[in-house]
Design goal:
By secondary structure, this protein is α+β, with helices and mostly antiparallel strands. About 25% of the residues lie in helices and about 10% in strands. It has a two-stranded parallel sheet.
């Protein structure tokens, strides 16, 4: 994704509820999003690897 980054936020975690593919964001269902944001403290680097 270059310098743009990938954003992680609360949202539908499947294509049907999202109305189609995302623009590159990682959507987390509300309980998962809450757990994720409670886990992250301050500036946290997250490395995402993908095979495509």
């Amino acid at each position: 994704m270059g310098q743009k980054g990938i954003f992680i936020h609360e949202g539908p975690n499947n294509l049907n509820d999202n109305g189609g593919e995302s623009a590159g964001c990682i959507h987390l269902a509300p309980p998962d999003a809450e757990n994720f944001y409670n886990w992250v403290t301050g500036r946290t680097r997250i490395q995402i690897s993908y095979p495509w």
